[in-house]
Amino acid sequence: MTTTATAPAGAPDGQHGAPLLELQGIHTFYGHVHALQGISITVNAGEIVTLIGANGAGKTTTLKTICGLLHPKQGTIRFEGREVTRVAAHELVRAGIGMAPEGRRIFSRMTVMENLQMGAYTTQANFSEHLDRVLTLFPRLQERHDQRGGTLSGGEQQMLAIGRALMSSPKILMLDEPSLGLSPILVEQIFQIIREINAQGTTILLVEQNALQALSVAHRGYVLQTGRVILSDSAEGLAANADVRRAYLGEI
Q: Mean pLDDT lowest for which of 25-39, 49-63, 112-126, 210-224?
């Protein structure tokens, strides 16, 4: 059953225009495995939208399909009103879609600064401006700028992965499991930074196993199960939903 609700207080007032990002009836396969089975979601400019679901529900596959790493066999993806269903991944970065992937995927043999430079390959003209923004958000990266990425702590690597994605100045930033493997204190820090990035005007699509943390920062959310959206609501509505609380928030 799918429900909708008014966005919680503080949600951006962007609901009346066309969505920044829209997926309609997306079907994506891994070989013969039907991973996404008709996914439809929207993300409005200025929002934080979260995707919640168990492992294998299709959350990461959804992000990979949006950013062009996978191409759907059926359905339509629109970004800023333009169809981008089969646009190449590097062109989607130029268009304003950025992603910090699950597992961070930093370049371990490169320094922090070299990693950030790699993230800025589409925006070299404004490199200094974007670098200043990233180092202001993540002062630790400034301290570690000459250190190889592979020698950073898990939290520092996550900061670097997000910072690298921000170097392309994305209009929408997709984050895949940003709290994975981090201590509770670092999780709080990462989610505070996510709030700051959004407050600066960047729209965020968040995949996160820690559903409680995700719903604490999001405006809206979708619950995925075996490649389908089974529920959509405001973050407050999902957090109050008894089925969601039992399945994803650890309540009996």
A: 112-126
The domain of 247 spans 1-96+170-252
Residue 123 and residue 87 in one domain = no
Distance of CA 26 to the CA centre of its chain: 18
55 and 25 within one domain: yes
Q: What's the domain count of the chain?
A: 2
Asked if the model's pLDDT at residue 46 lies above 90, the reply is: yes
> pLDDT (tens digit, 9 = 90+) per residue, 155-203?
888 889 999 999 989 999 999 998 888 888 888 888 999 999 999 999 9
pTM: 0.87
